[in-house]
Amino acid sequence: MTLTMRLRLTAPDLGASDLFKRALDQALSVRGSRDFESVEAYVTFVQTQVVAKKNARSASRLIEERKHLRPLPLTRLPEYTTHHLRVTCWSTITVGSHIYSVPSRLMNHEVEARRYADIVESWLGDDLLEAMPRIRGEKGHRIDYRHVIWSLVKKPGAWGRGRERPRSSSGGAPARCRRV
C-alpha cells in the first residue's frame, strides 16, 4: 500500500476564473442537470445563481467604490472592429490571425471585414457578401469549399469523388492569380 497526499487548494492559490468555474460547477450540480433550453436560459442561470451570489458578499464595498467612479461616456463603443483587406489570389482574407475564404470573384479586390463578438462579415462597398462564424483561439482558418471549388475541379484527385455541378451563366473560373 502506498500513501498518497491530497492537497486542498485555498482561495489565494486559485485564480478568479478557477473560483468562478468551481462555483458554476457546484450550482450546476445542485440544479441536477447541465442541459438548458437555450443559450439565454443558461446566461440567466449563471447571472442569477452564480454571479449574483458572488457579488452579494461584496455589495457594501461595491457601493463605496461606485462613489469614486467617473460617468460612462455618452457615445457607445462600436460593436465591431473594421479591417480593410485585399483578397489574395487564393480567395482568402486574414482577419486578425485567422484566415477566412471569400468568393473567388473578389480576388484582388479590397473588402471591408467587420469582426463582431461571434461573427465576421465581409462587405464590398454597401453590399454584405457573407457572414461567417468567428474563429476562436490562435491562428485558425475557415475555408468554404464553395469558394475554391473551381480550382479543385481542375486538379485530378483533388476533389476525390466529388462532381462538378453545372455553372450558372454569370459564373466561371476566375482568372489566374495576378500580382497587382
Automatic annotation (TrEMBL):
Q: What is this protein called?
A: Transposase for insertion sequence element IS21-like C-terminal domain-containing protein
What organism, scientifically named, is this protein from? Pendulispora albinea
Q: Which domain of life is it from?
A: Bacteria
Q: Where is this region: Disordered?
A: 158-180
Residues in Transposase for insertion sequence element IS21-like C-terminal domain copies: 73-143
Which InterPro entries does this one have?
Answer: IstA-like_C (IPR054353)
